Protein backbone atom coordinates (compact mmCIF):
# COMPACT_ATOMS: atom_id res chain seq x y z
CA UNK A 1 0.00 0.00 0.00
CA UNK A 2 2.72 2.38 1.05
CA UNK A 3 4.55 1.76 -2.19
CA UNK A 4 1.49 2.62 -4.26
CA UNK A 5 1.03 5.77 -2.27
CA UNK A 6 4.59 6.84 -3.09
CA UNK A 7 4.02 6.14 -6.76
CA UNK A 8 0.74 8.04 -6.63
CA UNK A 9 2.46 11.10 -5.14
CA UNK A 10 5.28 10.84 -7.61
CA UNK A 11 2.85 10.86 -10.51
CA UNK A 12 0.87 13.79 -9.15
CA UNK A 13 4.10 15.72 -8.59
CA UNK A 14 5.19 15.03 -12.14
CA UNK A 15 1.84 15.87 -13.64
CA UNK A 16 2.26 19.37 -12.22
CA UNK A 17 5.49 19.57 -14.16
CA UNK A 18 5.30 21.27 -17.52
CA UNK A 19 6.77 18.40 -19.54
CA UNK A 20 3.67 16.46 -18.57
CA UNK A 21 1.38 19.38 -19.09
CA UNK A 22 0.08 18.93 -22.61
CA UNK A 23 -1.56 22.34 -22.59
CA UNK A 24 1.88 23.90 -22.06
CA UNK A 25 3.24 22.29 -25.20
CA UNK A 26 0.17 23.22 -27.18
CA UNK A 27 0.37 26.81 -25.93
CA UNK A 28 4.07 27.00 -26.76
CA UNK A 29 3.36 25.83 -30.29
CA UNK A 30 0.88 28.62 -30.94
CA UNK A 31 3.85 30.98 -30.94
CA UNK A 32 4.39 31.04 -34.68
CA UNK A 33 5.75 33.28 -37.41
CA UNK A 34 2.25 33.88 -38.81
CA UNK A 35 1.03 35.65 -35.69
CA UNK A 36 4.27 37.57 -35.29
CA UNK A 37 4.13 38.71 -38.91
CA UNK A 38 0.55 39.85 -38.55
CA UNK A 39 1.33 42.15 -35.62
CA UNK A 40 4.71 43.43 -36.82
CA UNK A 41 3.33 44.33 -40.24
CA UNK A 42 0.72 46.54 -38.57
CA UNK A 43 2.93 48.11 -35.89
CA UNK A 44 5.78 48.87 -38.30
CA UNK A 45 3.55 50.08 -41.13
CA UNK A 46 3.84 53.64 -42.45
CA UNK A 47 0.28 54.16 -41.28
CA UNK A 48 1.56 53.97 -37.69
CA UNK A 49 3.98 56.82 -38.44
CA UNK A 50 6.95 55.49 -36.52
CA UNK A 51 4.98 55.29 -33.26
CA UNK A 52 6.17 58.55 -31.70
CA UNK A 53 4.77 59.35 -28.24
CA UNK A 54 1.99 61.97 -28.05
CA UNK A 55 1.26 61.82 -31.79
CA UNK A 56 -1.31 60.22 -34.06
CA UNK A 57 1.17 57.34 -34.26
CA UNK A 58 0.69 56.74 -30.55
CA UNK A 59 -3.10 56.82 -30.78
CA UNK A 60 -3.01 54.16 -33.48
CA UNK A 61 -0.46 52.02 -31.69
CA UNK A 62 -2.01 51.94 -28.25
CA UNK A 63 -5.52 51.42 -29.68
CA UNK A 64 -4.25 48.46 -31.65
CA UNK A 65 -2.53 46.95 -28.62
CA UNK A 66 -5.51 47.44 -26.32
CA UNK A 67 -7.88 45.96 -28.88
CA UNK A 68 -5.63 42.93 -29.37
CA UNK A 69 -5.31 42.34 -25.62
CA UNK A 70 -9.08 42.65 -25.30
CA UNK A 71 -9.69 40.13 -28.08
CA UNK A 72 -7.20 37.71 -26.56
CA UNK A 73 -9.15 37.96 -23.31
CA UNK A 74 -6.72 39.80 -21.06
CA UNK A 75 -8.01 42.21 -18.44
CA UNK A 76 -7.23 45.92 -18.36
CA UNK A 77 -4.58 46.37 -15.66
CA UNK A 78 -4.71 50.13 -15.03
CA UNK A 79 -7.76 50.55 -12.81
CA UNK A 80 -10.23 49.42 -15.40
CA UNK A 81 -8.27 50.71 -18.37
CA UNK A 82 -5.59 49.28 -20.63
CA UNK A 83 -3.83 52.64 -20.49
CA UNK A 84 -1.60 53.96 -17.75
CA UNK A 85 -1.31 57.64 -18.48
CA UNK A 86 2.22 59.05 -18.31
CA UNK A 87 2.36 62.84 -17.75
CA UNK A 88 5.17 64.35 -19.79
CA UNK A 89 6.85 67.63 -20.45
CA UNK A 90 8.26 68.33 -23.89
CA UNK A 91 11.11 70.82 -23.96
CA UNK A 92 12.43 72.28 -27.19
CA UNK A 93 15.56 74.40 -26.99
CA UNK A 94 16.34 76.74 -29.88
CA UNK A 95 19.48 75.81 -31.76
CA UNK A 96 20.79 79.36 -31.92
CA UNK A 97 22.01 79.18 -28.32
CA UNK A 98 25.24 80.95 -27.47
CA UNK A 99 28.00 79.60 -25.26
CA UNK A 100 31.08 81.63 -24.43
CA UNK A 101 33.96 80.89 -22.08
CA UNK A 102 36.07 83.74 -20.74
CA UNK A 103 38.78 84.30 -18.17
CA UNK A 104 41.50 82.32 -19.93
CA UNK A 105 44.24 83.31 -22.33
CA UNK A 106 41.66 83.73 -25.06
CA UNK A 107 37.89 83.80 -25.24
CA UNK A 108 36.41 80.48 -26.45
CA UNK A 109 33.16 80.62 -28.40
CA UNK A 110 31.54 77.26 -29.03
CA UNK A 111 29.33 76.54 -32.01
CA UNK A 112 26.09 74.64 -31.42
CA UNK A 113 26.15 71.10 -32.83
CA UNK A 114 29.73 71.29 -34.15
CA UNK A 115 31.28 71.94 -30.72
CA UNK A 116 28.57 71.48 -28.14
CA UNK A 117 25.04 70.29 -27.66
CA UNK A 118 22.66 70.81 -24.79
CA UNK A 119 19.40 72.04 -23.36
CA UNK A 120 17.76 73.00 -20.13
CA UNK A 121 15.70 70.82 -17.79
CA UNK A 122 13.85 73.97 -16.67
CA UNK A 123 10.38 74.88 -17.90
CA UNK A 124 11.33 78.44 -18.72
CA UNK A 125 11.23 80.41 -21.98
CA UNK A 126 14.62 81.91 -21.50
CA UNK A 127 17.78 80.70 -19.78
CA UNK A 128 20.67 82.97 -19.07
CA UNK A 129 23.87 82.04 -17.27
CA UNK A 130 26.32 84.84 -16.52
CA UNK A 131 29.98 84.21 -15.75
CA UNK A 132 29.48 80.94 -13.92
CA UNK A 133 32.70 79.58 -12.36
CA UNK A 134 33.90 76.41 -14.06
CA UNK A 135 35.17 73.49 -11.99
CA UNK A 136 36.64 70.31 -13.44
CA UNK A 137 35.25 67.54 -11.21
CA UNK A 138 36.86 64.52 -12.91
CA UNK A 139 34.19 61.88 -13.38
CA UNK A 140 31.66 63.78 -11.26
CA UNK A 141 30.92 60.71 -9.15
CA UNK A 142 29.75 60.56 -5.56
CA UNK A 143 29.50 56.90 -4.54
CA UNK A 144 29.72 55.48 -1.03
CA UNK A 145 29.53 52.00 -2.52
CA UNK A 146 32.79 52.41 -4.44
CA UNK A 147 34.34 54.81 -1.91
CA UNK A 148 34.66 57.66 -4.36
CA UNK A 149 33.58 61.29 -4.12
CA UNK A 150 34.67 63.83 -6.71
CA UNK A 151 32.58 66.47 -4.97
CA UNK A 152 34.12 66.03 -1.53
CA UNK A 153 34.47 69.32 0.33
CA UNK A 154 33.38 71.18 -2.76
CA UNK A 155 30.55 73.69 -3.07
CA UNK A 156 29.38 73.85 -6.68
CA UNK A 157 26.17 75.78 -6.03
CA UNK A 158 25.64 78.17 -8.89
CA UNK A 159 28.74 76.88 -10.65
CA UNK A 160 29.44 74.94 -13.82
CA UNK A 161 30.87 71.46 -13.45
CA UNK A 162 32.91 70.01 -16.30
CA UNK A 163 33.33 66.25 -16.23
CA UNK A 164 34.25 63.03 -18.01
CA UNK A 165 31.93 60.31 -19.29
CA UNK A 166 32.14 56.70 -17.98
CA UNK A 167 34.01 55.82 -14.77
CA UNK A 168 37.59 55.37 -13.50
CA UNK A 169 37.33 51.57 -13.76
CA UNK A 170 36.72 51.82 -17.49
CA UNK A 171 39.74 53.97 -18.36
CA UNK A 172 42.19 52.15 -16.13
CA UNK A 173 40.74 48.62 -16.63
CA UNK A 174 41.66 48.32 -12.95
CA UNK A 175 39.31 45.75 -11.41
CA UNK A 176 39.73 47.35 -7.98
CA UNK A 177 38.16 50.57 -9.28
CA UNK A 178 34.39 50.50 -9.70
CA UNK A 179 33.48 47.46 -11.78
CA UNK A 180 36.70 47.36 -13.77
CA UNK A 181 36.15 47.89 -17.46
CA UNK A 182 32.41 47.24 -17.27
CA UNK A 183 30.52 50.52 -17.04
CA UNK A 184 28.69 51.18 -13.79
CA UNK A 185 25.66 53.44 -13.56
CA UNK A 186 28.06 56.13 -12.32
CA UNK A 187 29.47 56.19 -15.82
CA UNK A 188 26.20 57.05 -17.55
CA UNK A 189 25.38 60.57 -18.69
CA UNK A 190 22.03 60.37 -16.88
CA UNK A 191 23.87 59.86 -13.59
CA UNK A 192 26.26 62.74 -14.31
CA UNK A 193 23.32 65.12 -14.72
CA UNK A 194 21.47 63.77 -11.69
CA UNK A 195 24.48 64.09 -9.39
CA UNK A 196 25.43 67.56 -10.63
CA UNK A 197 21.83 68.65 -9.95
CA UNK A 198 21.92 67.11 -6.45
CA UNK A 199 25.13 69.03 -5.79
CA UNK A 200 23.39 72.26 -6.76
CA UNK A 201 25.37 72.99 -9.93
CA UNK A 202 24.05 75.65 -12.31
CA UNK A 203 25.37 73.90 -15.41
CA UNK A 204 26.93 70.56 -16.24
CA UNK A 205 29.12 69.84 -19.24
CA UNK A 206 30.19 66.35 -20.24
CA UNK A 207 33.38 65.98 -22.25
CA UNK A 208 32.72 63.57 -25.09
CA UNK A 209 35.06 60.70 -25.87
CA UNK A 210 33.97 58.09 -28.40
CA UNK A 211 35.34 55.02 -26.63
CA UNK A 212 34.17 55.99 -23.16
CA UNK A 213 30.72 57.11 -24.31
CA UNK A 214 30.34 54.04 -26.57
CA UNK A 215 29.20 56.21 -29.47
CA UNK A 216 30.64 58.91 -31.73
CA UNK A 217 29.81 62.62 -31.56
CA UNK A 218 27.26 62.15 -34.36
CA UNK A 219 25.05 60.13 -32.03
CA UNK A 220 25.25 62.85 -29.38
CA UNK A 221 24.24 65.41 -32.03
CA UNK A 222 21.27 63.35 -33.26
CA UNK A 223 20.05 62.32 -29.85
CA UNK A 224 19.90 65.76 -28.29
CA UNK A 225 19.06 68.08 -31.15
CA UNK A 226 15.32 67.37 -31.15
CA UNK A 227 12.76 68.13 -28.46
CA UNK A 228 13.33 66.35 -25.19
CA UNK A 229 10.64 64.59 -23.23
CA UNK A 230 10.81 64.22 -19.49
CA UNK A 231 8.43 63.06 -16.81
CA UNK A 232 6.34 65.79 -15.24
CA UNK A 233 7.90 65.06 -11.84
CA UNK A 234 11.43 65.04 -13.26
CA UNK A 235 13.91 65.76 -10.48
CA UNK A 236 16.20 67.90 -12.61
CA UNK A 237 13.37 70.38 -13.17
CA UNK A 238 13.07 71.09 -9.46
CA UNK A 239 16.84 71.48 -9.03
CA UNK A 240 18.91 74.58 -9.70
CA UNK A 241 20.38 73.08 -12.86
CA UNK A 242 19.88 75.47 -15.78
CA UNK A 243 21.89 73.78 -18.49
CA UNK A 244 23.09 70.27 -19.26
CA UNK A 245 25.12 69.40 -22.28
CA UNK A 246 28.11 67.84 -23.97
CA UNK A 247 31.19 69.30 -25.64
CA UNK A 248 33.48 67.61 -28.14
CA UNK A 249 36.86 66.36 -27.02
CA UNK A 250 38.47 68.94 -29.27
CA UNK A 251 36.55 71.80 -27.67
CA UNK A 252 37.51 70.52 -24.23
CA UNK A 253 41.17 70.63 -25.22
CA UNK A 254 40.71 74.20 -26.44
CA UNK A 255 39.07 75.25 -23.18
CA UNK A 256 41.65 73.55 -20.97
CA UNK A 257 44.36 75.07 -23.15
CA UNK A 258 43.00 78.57 -22.71
CA UNK A 259 43.10 78.01 -18.93
CA UNK A 260 46.69 76.81 -19.15
CA UNK A 261 45.65 73.36 -17.93
CA UNK A 262 47.14 70.12 -19.22
CA UNK A 263 44.10 68.21 -20.50
CA UNK A 264 45.76 64.80 -20.79
CA UNK A 265 47.43 64.98 -17.41
CA UNK A 266 44.28 66.17 -15.62
CA UNK A 267 41.93 63.67 -17.21
CA UNK A 268 44.39 60.92 -16.37
CA UNK A 269 44.66 62.01 -12.74
CA UNK A 270 40.84 62.01 -12.56
CA UNK A 271 40.91 58.22 -12.55
CA UNK A 272 43.29 57.93 -9.61
CA UNK A 273 42.27 57.80 -5.97
CA UNK A 274 42.81 61.09 -4.23
CA UNK A 275 41.97 63.17 -7.30
CA UNK A 276 41.03 66.71 -6.31
CA UNK A 277 38.67 68.84 -8.41
CA UNK A 278 40.27 71.76 -10.20
CA UNK A 279 39.03 75.34 -10.26
CA UNK A 280 39.57 76.16 -13.93
CA UNK A 281 39.48 79.94 -13.29
CA UNK A 282 37.20 80.24 -16.28
CA UNK A 283 33.69 81.65 -16.58
CA UNK A 284 30.87 80.23 -18.64
CA UNK A 285 28.11 82.37 -20.09
CA UNK A 286 25.19 81.00 -21.99
CA UNK A 287 21.88 82.09 -23.38
CA UNK A 288 19.11 79.97 -24.83
CA UNK A 289 15.43 80.13 -25.68
CA UNK A 290 13.23 77.22 -24.77
CA UNK A 291 9.65 76.07 -25.40
CA UNK A 292 7.68 74.05 -22.83
CA UNK A 293 4.66 71.90 -23.65
CA UNK A 294 2.73 69.71 -21.24
CA UNK A 295 1.55 66.51 -22.81
CA UNK A 296 0.76 62.87 -22.14
CA UNK A 297 1.61 59.43 -23.37
CA UNK A 298 0.52 55.95 -22.29
CA UNK A 299 1.86 52.64 -21.13
CA UNK A 300 -0.37 49.78 -22.26
CA UNK A 301 -1.03 47.28 -19.46
CA UNK A 302 -2.98 44.03 -19.67
CA UNK A 303 -3.08 41.23 -17.15
CA UNK A 304 -3.74 37.49 -17.26
CA UNK A 305 -4.59 36.61 -13.65
CA UNK A 306 -3.04 33.63 -11.93
CA UNK A 307 -5.08 30.91 -10.29
CA UNK A 308 -3.41 30.22 -6.95
CA UNK A 309 -1.25 33.24 -6.25
CA UNK A 310 -3.00 35.94 -8.27
CA UNK A 311 -1.60 38.77 -6.13
CA UNK A 312 1.94 37.94 -7.29
CA UNK A 313 3.09 39.22 -10.66
CA UNK A 314 5.52 38.43 -13.43
CA UNK A 315 5.92 41.39 -15.78
CA UNK A 316 6.85 41.24 -19.44
CA UNK A 317 7.96 44.62 -20.81
CA UNK A 318 8.53 45.75 -24.39
CA UNK A 319 8.51 49.39 -25.44
CA UNK A 320 6.04 50.25 -28.20
CA UNK A 321 7.46 53.68 -29.01
CA UNK A 322 9.97 54.71 -31.64
CA UNK A 323 11.11 57.98 -33.23
CA UNK A 324 8.19 58.84 -35.50
CA UNK A 325 8.79 61.00 -38.56
CA UNK A 326 11.98 63.00 -38.96
CA UNK A 327 12.22 65.23 -42.01
CA UNK A 328 15.95 65.61 -41.54
CA UNK A 329 16.10 62.27 -43.36
CA UNK A 330 15.68 62.74 -47.11
CA UNK A 331 13.34 60.36 -48.94
CA UNK A 332 11.95 57.88 -46.44
CA UNK A 333 11.48 59.98 -43.32
CA UNK A 334 9.43 57.52 -41.25
CA UNK A 335 11.39 55.69 -38.59
CA UNK A 336 9.24 52.57 -38.50
CA UNK A 337 11.21 50.79 -35.78
CA UNK A 338 10.34 47.35 -37.12
CA UNK A 339 13.02 45.48 -35.21
CA UNK A 340 13.18 48.18 -32.52
CA UNK A 341 10.64 47.39 -31.15
CA UNK A 342 7.65 46.27 -33.22
CA UNK A 343 9.11 42.77 -32.85
CA UNK A 344 9.22 42.86 -29.05
CA UNK A 345 5.77 44.44 -28.86
CA UNK A 346 4.36 41.75 -31.16
CA UNK A 347 5.92 39.08 -28.96
CA UNK A 348 3.88 40.38 -25.99
CA UNK A 349 0.66 39.79 -27.93
CA UNK A 350 1.71 36.36 -29.10
CA UNK A 351 2.78 35.28 -25.61
CA UNK A 352 -0.38 36.71 -24.06
CA UNK A 353 -2.42 34.49 -26.33
CA UNK A 354 -0.31 31.47 -25.44
CA UNK A 355 -0.86 32.09 -21.71
CA UNK A 356 -4.62 32.07 -22.20
CA UNK A 357 -4.38 28.54 -23.61
CA UNK A 358 -2.93 27.03 -20.44
CA UNK A 359 -5.05 24.52 -18.52
CA UNK A 360 -4.76 24.74 -15.64
CA UNK A 361 -4.09 28.45 -15.54
CA UNK A 362 -0.64 29.36 -14.18
CA UNK A 363 -0.36 30.14 -10.43
CA UNK A 364 0.85 33.72 -10.54
CA UNK A 365 -0.53 36.63 -12.55
CA UNK A 366 1.26 37.80 -15.67
CA UNK A 367 1.30 41.49 -16.61
CA UNK A 368 2.00 42.48 -20.20
CA UNK A 369 3.35 46.00 -20.11
CA UNK A 370 4.11 47.80 -23.33
CA UNK A 371 5.83 50.98 -22.24
CA UNK A 372 6.21 54.36 -23.88
CA UNK A 373 9.15 56.75 -24.30
CA UNK A 374 11.91 54.17 -24.04
CA UNK A 375 13.73 56.03 -26.78
CA UNK A 376 13.35 59.25 -24.78
CA UNK A 377 15.25 57.84 -21.81
CA UNK A 378 13.19 54.91 -20.43
CA UNK A 379 10.47 57.31 -19.29
CA UNK A 380 7.45 54.99 -19.52
CA UNK A 381 9.09 52.20 -17.55
CA UNK A 382 10.53 54.71 -15.09
CA UNK A 383 7.03 56.07 -14.56
CA UNK A 384 5.63 52.59 -14.00
CA UNK A 385 8.44 51.70 -11.58
CA UNK A 386 7.64 54.79 -9.52
CA UNK A 387 3.86 54.51 -9.93
CA UNK A 388 3.35 50.74 -10.01
CA UNK A 389 -0.08 49.26 -10.70
CA UNK A 390 0.77 46.29 -8.47
CA UNK A 391 2.90 46.16 -5.30
CA UNK A 392 6.63 46.02 -6.13
CA UNK A 393 7.16 43.56 -3.27
CA UNK A 394 4.70 41.22 -4.98
CA UNK A 395 6.37 41.69 -8.33
CA UNK A 396 8.50 38.62 -8.79
CA UNK A 397 10.52 39.84 -11.72
CA UNK A 398 10.56 41.63 -15.05
CA UNK A 399 11.46 40.13 -18.40
CA UNK A 400 12.32 42.84 -20.91
CA UNK A 401 12.23 42.32 -24.67
CA UNK A 402 13.78 44.94 -26.91
CA UNK A 403 14.44 43.92 -30.50
CA UNK A 404 14.11 40.33 -31.72
CA UNK A 405 16.40 38.28 -33.92
CA UNK A 406 15.86 38.43 -37.71
CA UNK A 407 18.86 36.34 -38.81
CA UNK A 408 17.71 32.83 -37.95
CA UNK A 409 18.14 30.41 -35.07
CA UNK A 410 21.02 30.84 -32.66
CA UNK A 411 22.50 28.52 -30.08
CA UNK A 412 22.93 31.37 -27.63
CA UNK A 413 21.00 34.26 -26.14
CA UNK A 414 22.57 37.23 -24.43
CA UNK A 415 21.99 38.38 -20.86
CA UNK A 416 22.98 41.98 -20.16
CA UNK A 417 23.99 42.02 -16.51
CA UNK A 418 24.68 38.29 -16.53
CA UNK A 419 24.75 36.90 -13.01
CA UNK A 420 22.98 39.88 -11.45
CA UNK A 421 19.91 38.00 -10.24
CA UNK A 422 18.29 34.61 -9.80
CA UNK A 423 16.19 35.33 -12.90
CA UNK A 424 19.24 34.40 -14.95
CA UNK A 425 19.05 30.85 -13.60
CA UNK A 426 15.58 30.50 -15.10
CA UNK A 427 16.79 31.75 -18.47
CA UNK A 428 19.82 29.47 -18.38
CA UNK A 429 17.66 26.46 -17.46
CA UNK A 430 15.18 27.03 -20.28
CA UNK A 431 17.91 27.60 -22.85
CA UNK A 432 19.75 24.52 -21.59
CA UNK A 433 16.65 22.40 -22.04
CA UNK A 434 16.85 23.11 -25.77
CA UNK A 435 20.60 22.62 -25.97
CA UNK A 436 21.15 26.37 -26.05
CA UNK A 437 23.26 28.58 -23.79
CA UNK A 438 23.33 32.07 -22.28
CA UNK A 439 26.22 34.46 -22.78
CA UNK A 440 27.22 37.53 -20.80
CA UNK A 441 27.21 40.94 -22.45
CA UNK A 442 30.31 40.93 -24.73
CA UNK A 443 30.83 44.70 -24.31
CA UNK A 444 29.89 45.62 -20.73
CA UNK A 445 31.91 48.84 -21.06
CA UNK A 446 29.15 50.21 -23.29
CA UNK A 447 26.73 50.21 -20.39
CA UNK A 448 23.95 48.37 -22.26
CA UNK A 449 22.52 47.38 -18.91
CA UNK A 450 21.38 50.95 -18.38
CA UNK A 451 19.93 51.39 -21.83
CA UNK A 452 16.62 49.54 -21.88
CA UNK A 453 13.51 49.32 -19.74
CA UNK A 454 14.59 46.52 -17.40
CA UNK A 455 16.91 49.10 -15.79
CA UNK A 456 14.01 51.25 -14.58
CA UNK A 457 12.89 48.28 -12.49
CA UNK A 458 16.38 47.41 -11.26
CA UNK A 459 16.73 51.03 -10.13
CA UNK A 460 13.85 50.58 -7.67
CA UNK A 461 15.00 47.09 -6.64
CA UNK A 462 12.73 44.80 -8.68
CA UNK A 463 14.73 41.92 -10.20
CA UNK A 464 14.74 42.27 -13.96
CA UNK A 465 16.12 40.29 -16.83
CA UNK A 466 17.23 41.68 -20.15
CA UNK A 467 17.57 38.68 -22.40
CA UNK A 468 18.32 39.46 -26.02
CA UNK A 469 19.19 37.88 -29.35
CA UNK A 470 22.24 35.66 -29.63
CA UNK A 471 24.86 35.66 -32.36
CA UNK A 472 25.94 32.01 -32.52
CA UNK A 473 23.92 31.21 -35.63
CA UNK A 474 22.98 27.54 -35.95
CA UNK A 475 23.63 27.46 -39.68
CA UNK A 476 26.42 29.98 -40.21
CA UNK A 477 28.23 30.18 -36.89
CA UNK A 478 29.23 32.90 -34.50
CA UNK A 479 31.41 35.13 -36.66
CA UNK A 480 28.68 35.37 -39.25
CA UNK A 481 26.03 36.14 -36.65
CA UNK A 482 28.15 38.83 -35.05
CA UNK A 483 28.86 40.40 -38.44
CA UNK A 484 25.13 40.44 -39.31
CA UNK A 485 24.33 42.16 -36.04
CA UNK A 486 27.03 44.75 -36.45
CA UNK A 487 26.08 45.49 -40.01
CA UNK A 488 22.43 45.84 -39.07
CA UNK A 489 23.31 48.25 -36.26
CA UNK A 490 25.49 50.36 -38.55
CA UNK A 491 22.94 50.50 -41.37
CA UNK A 492 19.58 50.54 -39.64
CA UNK A 493 19.72 51.26 -35.91
CA UNK A 494 17.52 54.30 -35.18
CA UNK A 495 17.23 55.02 -38.90
CA UNK A 496 14.29 55.05 -41.35
CA UNK A 497 15.65 51.81 -42.83
CA UNK A 498 14.61 49.80 -39.75
CA UNK A 499 11.74 48.57 -41.92
CA UNK A 500 9.60 45.46 -41.85
CA UNK A 501 11.00 43.22 -44.61
CA UNK A 502 9.34 39.81 -44.34
CA UNK A 503 11.09 38.53 -47.46
CA UNK A 504 14.52 39.31 -46.05
CA UNK A 505 13.91 38.31 -42.46
CA UNK A 506 14.42 34.81 -41.12
CA UNK A 507 11.72 34.37 -38.48
CA UNK A 508 12.95 31.04 -37.09
CA UNK A 509 15.25 32.60 -34.46
CA UNK A 510 12.65 35.10 -33.36
CA UNK A 511 10.09 32.35 -32.82
CA UNK A 512 12.47 30.14 -30.90
CA UNK A 513 13.52 33.09 -28.71
CA UNK A 514 9.92 34.13 -28.05
CA UNK A 515 9.18 30.59 -26.93
CA UNK A 516 12.10 30.90 -24.50
CA UNK A 517 10.65 34.15 -23.10
CA UNK A 518 7.30 32.44 -22.76
CA UNK A 519 8.73 29.44 -20.98
CA UNK A 520 10.75 31.55 -18.53
CA UNK A 521 7.58 33.46 -17.63
CA UNK A 522 5.67 30.21 -17.41
CA UNK A 523 8.21 28.71 -15.01
CA UNK A 524 8.29 31.85 -12.87
CA UNK A 525 4.52 31.97 -12.74
CA UNK A 526 4.29 28.38 -11.47
CA UNK A 527 6.71 28.49 -8.58
CA UNK A 528 6.66 30.11 -5.14
CA UNK A 529 10.28 31.15 -5.54
CA UNK A 530 11.23 34.84 -5.26
CA UNK A 531 14.43 35.19 -7.30
CA UNK A 532 16.82 37.62 -5.67
CA UNK A 533 19.61 39.93 -6.69
CA UNK A 534 22.95 38.25 -6.13
CA UNK A 535 25.18 39.52 -3.28
CA UNK A 536 27.16 42.62 -4.20
CA UNK A 537 24.68 43.79 -6.85
CA UNK A 538 23.78 47.44 -6.12
CA UNK A 539 19.99 46.88 -6.39
CA UNK A 540 19.93 44.15 -3.75
CA UNK A 541 19.64 46.37 -0.69
CA UNK A 542 16.58 48.12 -2.15
CA UNK A 543 14.88 44.78 -2.77
CA UNK A 544 15.75 43.51 0.70
CA UNK A 545 14.24 46.65 2.22
CA UNK A 546 11.15 46.31 0.04
CA UNK A 547 10.60 42.70 1.10
CA UNK A 548 11.19 43.47 4.79
CA UNK A 549 8.64 46.25 4.75
CA UNK A 550 6.14 43.88 3.25
CA UNK A 551 6.62 41.11 5.81
ZN1 LIG B 1 14.44 49.54 -28.34
What would your notes on this structure say?
- With 551 residues, this protein is an alpha/beta fold.
- The chain folds into two domains: 45-76 and 305-550, Zn peptidases (Aminopeptidase, 3-Layer(aba) Sandwich); 91-292, Glucose Oxidase, domain 1, CATH 3.50.30.30.
- Helix content is 34%, strand content 24%.
- The strands form three sheets. The chain has a 17-stranded mixed beta sheet that branches.
- Helix 13 crosses helix 16.
- The structure holds zinc ion.
- Zinc ion binds at residues 319, 340-341, 374, 402-403.
Quick summary of this structure?
The protein is an alpha/beta fold and 551 residues long. 34% of the residues lie in helices and 24% in strands. The chain contains 17 helices and 21 strands.
Secondary-structure-based class equals alpha/beta
* CATH homology superfamily of the largest domain: Zn peptidases
Bound molecules: zinc ion
Mean pLDDT: 94
- Number of beta-strand segments: 21
- Return the CATH architecture of the largest domain: 3-Layer(aba) Sandwich
**Helical amount among residues, as a percent range?**
25-40%
Amino acid sequence: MKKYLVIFFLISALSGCKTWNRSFKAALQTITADDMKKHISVLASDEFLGRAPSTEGETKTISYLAEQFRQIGLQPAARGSYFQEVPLVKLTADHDMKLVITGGKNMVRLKYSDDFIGNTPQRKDHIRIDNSDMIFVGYGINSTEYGWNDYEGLDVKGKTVVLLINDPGYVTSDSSLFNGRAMTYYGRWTYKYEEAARQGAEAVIIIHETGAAAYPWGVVQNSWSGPEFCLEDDELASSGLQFKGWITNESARKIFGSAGLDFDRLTKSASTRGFKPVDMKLKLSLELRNRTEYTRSNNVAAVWPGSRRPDEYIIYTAHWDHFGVNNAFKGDSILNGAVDNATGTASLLVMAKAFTLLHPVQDRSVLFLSVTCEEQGLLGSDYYARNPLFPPGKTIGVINIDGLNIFGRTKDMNITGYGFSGLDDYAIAVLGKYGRYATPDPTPEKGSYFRSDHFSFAKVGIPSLNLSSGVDNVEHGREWGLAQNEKWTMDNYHKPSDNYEPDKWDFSGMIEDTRVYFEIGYDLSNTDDFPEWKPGIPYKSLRDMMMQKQN
